[in-house]
Amino acid sequence: MIPAAFEYYRPKDMTGVLSLLGEHGDNARVIAGGHSLIPMMKLRMADVPHLIDLQGVGGLDDIELSANSIRIGAMVTQHDIIDHNGLASAAPILREAALQIADPQVRYMGTVGGNVANGDPGNDMPGLMQCLDATFTVVGLDGERDIPARQFYEAAYMTAREDEEVLTSITMLIPAGGYAYEKQKRKIGDYATAAAAVLLTKEGNTCKSASIAMTNLSDIPVYSEEAGAALVGSSLDDTAIKAAVTAVLGDIDPSEDNRGPVAFKKHLAGVILRRAIERAWSRA
Amino acid sequence: MKDEVESREDRVAGLKGMGCSRKRVEDARFTQGKGNYVDDLKLDGMLFGDFVRSPYAHARIVNIDTEAALKVPGVLAVLTAKDLEPLGLHWMPTLAGDKQMVLADGKVLFQGQEVAYVVVQDRYAAADGIEAVEVDYEELPVLVNPFEALKSDVVLREDLLAEDGSIPDGAHGPRKHHNHIFTWEAGDKDPTLEVIDNADVVAEETMYYHRTHPCPLETCGCVASMDKVNGKLTLWGTFQAPHAIRTVVSLISGIEEHNIRVISPDIGGGFGNKVGAYPGYVCSVVASIVTGKPVKWIEDRMDNLMTTAFARDYHMTGRIAATKEGKITGVHCSVTADHGGFDACADPTKFPAGFMNICTGSYDIPTAYLEVDGVYTNKAPGGVSYRCSFRVTEAVYFIERMIEVLAIKLNMDAAELRRINFIKKEQFPYQAALGWEYDSGDYHTAWDKALKAVDYDGLRAEQAQRVEDFKAGKTRKLMGIGLTFFTEIVGAGPVKNCDILGLGMFDSCEIRIHPTGSAIARLGTISQGQGHATTFAQILASEIGLPADSITIEEGDTDTAPYGLGTYGSRSTPVAGAATAMAGRKIRAKAQMIAAYLLEVHDDDVEFDVDRFAVKGAPEKFKTMNEIAFAAYNQAIPGIEPGLEAVSYYDPPNMTYPFGAYVCVMDIDVDTGVPVIRRFYALDDCGTRINPMIIEGQVHGGLTEALAVALGQEIAYDDMGNVKTGTLMDFFLPTAWEVPNYETDHTVTPSPHHPIGAKGVGESPHVGGVPCFSNAVQDAFRPFGNTHTNMPHDHWRIWKTANELGLHG
Amino acid sequence: MSKKQHYKITVNGKEEEFLAEPRELLIHTLRERLKITGPHIGCETSHCGACTVTVNGKSVKSCTVFVAQADGTEITTIEGIGSPDALHPLQEAFKEHHGLQCGFCTPGMIIRASKLLEEIPNPSEEEIRFGMAGNICRCTGYQNIVKSIQAAAAEMNSAKEAAE
Within chain A, which residues score under 50 in pLDDT? Predict the structure, then answer.
């Protein structure tokens, strides 16, 4: 398993990256940790004549916490997320999810930016970021623009980012309330058979807000506004949870693969979602 | 002197002989990254070879255009079947008496089949060169189901038809259809059918033991180096049977066997994957002969999973008859075996379905009949024994499932059903209905010990409560208790009925004692992780009285090792281990004469005592083996040749029959299909125990491979013959996270015919483990009407079982 | 083929400079170019961990890193953590507790464990199993690997205490 030859660049700043992207268009790809892209290149399923490594570009690997918001640079790794105690107390769902991604070695290399940017429906961070209502900042030759995570994904490997743009950071408000990232996979290193990200707040015994997103159950991550709405105002009784599950089942569109047929995945999506809701509620 | 103060106990301990958990001598190099695996080998001017492989499962090859590839920098040559044909090497014989294309000769029969061989300067040029070879394929109808293949007009193997279109006999007798390979029968058909027709109770079940793969962490590979000056070919490779490879290479290449040296360096796991001969070996040899340079071929993981040596793929139907009280009266097993595009099963010649006829298991079943039909399909060839002895895994799975199905039919406890049908201790040696003579066993003792260890009655009570709780809506988890009692048949085997390609399945050991009391022993086997360098030295230490630490064990070089058939089917200890003991005894016999001479007494007046010969009745008068070794070389002894060496070629009188009792406790999440192994208890009886530490390690490893096979590992194909599980993303190899801790236990029932009573253990945990894990899953659903579901029990299939039983509301 | 570039990496304390295609995989740089054959190739898709080495203090699967990405890094392989006369406690423990059989996964396993013990000096069994889950072993069933790592941790901790 050896990739086709390519030209390699390690620009020292974003201007250099953007000018290379401008020059080579869709013949170029940026690489962060490379743990999604390199296997595809080795299997010769991705042809990348020009490979632009972001590791020389400064300022992309910071985690910044303010009183009410979080900014994560695109080159922050899953390991960095797990290792960052401030982040773990501000938004523990990030660590909970990151621990369920791949394996230790891959988490050292795999970046949050790469995970959200490449549009692989198997990746965990896109659904998580939709749940968190995060915003992705991308930069192009015309400058920066912000794209809400919930509007970023168009189809498998197709996103709102233009070929000439680079995703540089992810920002979000510090989430309040209870959380859960629930994932079922066949083994360590596998993508989700089904996964659910849930954030809930409660007032007394009433759900005040709810955010729900699902992973690997469609060709894009699925943020289900309706599912969240089904919970708000309820005491998370069985009827409310059933309504949320029904809403999610209406939004997802899983396909059969080695993890199982559609019927199983739909059923599992409901089970996983219910568990995530219950866990988040217990933490709210 | 030290010897005088040392107690006998200390002297025994100092030898680190049999029964001691000696630390492994192999580990120093492996822990320091200094193993020497085939891909570590770098030779001057070494070239690489790699294959253009078919993307189609069944296609005619219209044209192969190599022009563009030859222009790729670093590409030296592209070999196709046309280039090999003048040498007669475009096809090669398989271990099963069939022949297999080395490179596609007009058509391809499975996805990943070798189409052309690119000879290049480095791996990178190989990958580029392969991309540049243009092959025109004309797709043909694909047969991936053996039952359909037996009805289809599509001929997979035109080469096996006579000119008039008739179907000549195959290597194993008449063929019923152009996609049929053989029918193999054992036992008595009519009496068995009669017993079944007249039985009180008959349980029937159809089961599919899915296709999987041994998948050692190191893939297959070789380096061929033809020395044109001296006319010598050296072939390093991942060979579980180096001598057999030498003979096969000689037979198909015409190079005289003395001019071929086959070397198996360190091997990164085999599990059956590295028994066969593959096109990569042949092409590398040819490329080295053509170029005069060493040529290396190393599979990548996809090549490995898709092409070399699948295992299992048995469709089995069973009927088991019993009295109302549960005494089994007969069993009928009918198998349709999917062998893929070529019959390349690695079985002894007279056993085209391996030792499937051990499928009466550990039970006293008076009448039995087995029929196996081998079938060609558009899948990869293979059919190797994946950590088992020639289809024993299939046989044990069959009978241990049939026992469970019968227990359900009888509404009996499955542990009790086993107990009342076990072959009794006093019945050994036991003549089984399908032809084998079980050498020894004490099944009741082992079974009782196992059930007591896990508090079997307590587990059943807990399970009953769990079912109540489940029905009452208090839990969504079911509990399964998996039981298995297995008897293996290993140590192939007696030359009178065991050979591969005509090569008798004896094995060998040659020992040289050095004058200063150390030694080297060479064997016809080859370790792939079993620790032979450690354990064979222990056997010798006990036999010849020299410390194991002073004995070097060497394997895998055909120029130095005596001829042997290699390591697979748990045959090393039963066959080569016996040869080692016997060679040791020859050393000891000569040492006795030398000692008697030195002590100035008659030969019969000295006796062996741990590390010395002493005068009978006068233990203070003795000669140590060290002293004897020195004298053997350096003292002129009348009537005795100088030197102290021996060789033994051991043809075992019978197989050995290790057995064991396993219990698995599993909790199953009905809603997600996720199983959690709460407890696994494994009692193994492998006869005399050479190194308990290594035995335990073998059991842990074998159980983990069993867990993988039972719970998710498969080579799956779609209808077009595409492999769906070609990387480790989808081919299930569990990590430390998915694997439980195991409890190990043992009884000791020595083999009566083996020189040291040892039976072999490496494969037992796999053979017994697979049905045990599977039975645990199935047992969890038994209270809800489940009788049988097929493996692998991955999440969605477990969920499906629950779903079909109506457990999702 | 693309043009060869000049690269410099430090492996086990030794600086290495060479020309290579950027697509060269780090595992091949180590094994083929530098003849450091301890790290092995098992799966090639970053699942098995046989090729694990430490790159700039991180456990990395070197089959999924291009040499161009590794330019300028410091790398430690199994060959760099002990010597025949002074084995690393993990090397000793794997020998002592039968933590290996065929040995093919062992270099990756030990180098990964060395990093794990840096991060978690006294890991629980669960932490070991989770922290080692990027390395596949086909022979041992992991039980003795876990035992070996626990033993090495105990040994390293008591050595550290004695030194303090």
Answer: none
Which of C44, C61, C80 is where one domain is finished? Answer: C80
Mark which of C80, C111, C136 sits at the end of a domain: C80
**In this structure, are B528 and B590 located in the same domain?**
yes
Q: Does domain A63-173 have CATH number 3.30.465.10?
A: yes
Name the closest residue on chain B to residue A3, using Cα atoms. B127
Q: Which residues of B are catalytic?
A: 240, 387-388, 763
Please report, for the domain that includes residue B75, its CATH number: 3.90.1170.50
Whole domain around residue B751: which residue ranges? 394-489+655-804
Q: Kindly state whether residue B162 falls inside one of the protein's structural domains.
A: no
Inter-chain residue contact A272 with B124, CB threshold 8 Å: no
* Residue B75 host element (H or E): strand B75-79
Residues of B in contact with A242 (CB under 8 A): none
pLDDT at B4: 55
* Chain A residues touching C71 at Cβ < 8 A: 10
| Burial class of residue A73, CB neighbours in 10 A (0-12, 13-18, 19+) | buried
Q: Which of B602, B627, B650 is the last residue of a domain?
A: B650
Q: C49 falls in which pLDDT band (50, 70, 90)?
A: very high
Helices B242-253 and B279-291, packing angle to 10 deg: 60
Q: Among the three residues B650, B683, B707, which one is the final residue of a domain in this structure?
A: B650
pLDDT digits (tens, 9 = 90+) for A145-169: 999 999 999 999 999 999 999 999 9
Query: Is the domain of B558 the same as that of B611?
Result: yes
Please state, as a whole number, how many other Cβ atoms lie within 10 Å of the Cβ of residue A160. 16
Q: How far is B247 from chain C (nearest CA, A)?
A: 26
Decide if B571 contacts B762 (C-beta within 8 A): no
Secondary structure of residue B104 in the 3-state scheme: coil
Whether residues B266 and C47 touch (CB distance < 8 A) is answered with no
Complex-level ipTM beyond the 0.90 threshold: yes
Indicate which CATH number applies to the domain containing B558. 3.30.365.10
* Domain boundaries, position C21: 5-80
Question: How far does B668 lie from chain A, in Å, by closest CA?
Answer: 14
**Contact call for residues B765 and B745 (beta carbons, < 8 A):** no
A56 touches chain B (CB under 8 A): no
Report the domain count for chain B: 3
B713 φ, ψ to 5°?
A: -80, 120
Q: State whether residue A6 sits within 8 Å of chain C by CB.
A: yes
Contact between B674 and A184 (Cβ < 8 Å): yes
What are the sequence ranges of the domains in chain A?
Answer: 7-56, 63-173, 180-283
* Extended strands (E) in chain A: 7-9, 28-31, 50-53, 63-65, 69-73, 135-140, 143-148, 153-155, 158-159, 166-173, 178-184, 194-203, 206-215, 222-223
Whether residue B548 lies inside any domain: the answer is: yes
Residues of chain B with pLDDT under 50: 1-3
A67 contacts chain C (CB < 8 A): no
Determine whether the interchain pair B795/A187 forms a contact, defined as Cβ–Cβ distance below 8 Å: no
A7-56 maps to which CATH number? 3.30.43.10
pLDDT digits (tens, 9 = 90+) for B190-211: 999 999 999 999 999 999 999 9
pLDDT value of residue B567: 87
CATH number for the domain formed by residue range(s) A180-283: 3.30.390.50
pLDDT at B1: 45
Question: Rounded to whole angstroms, how far apart are CA atoms B235 and B224?
Answer: 5
Q: Number of folded domains in chain C?
A: 2
- B424/B444 Cα distance (integer angstroms): 7
Token duo for residue B472: 């009452």
Supply the pLDDT for residue B568: 86
Q: Note the pLDDT tens digit of each residue in A104-144.
A: 999 999 999 999 999 999 999 999 999 999 999 999 999 99
User: Is pLDDT above 80 for C1?
Assistant: no
Q: Is residue B167 part of a domain?
A: no
For residue B146, tell me if it sits in a domain. Answer: no
**Can you tell me the distance from the alpha carbon of A135 to that of A172, in angstroms, rounded to the nearest whole number?**
6
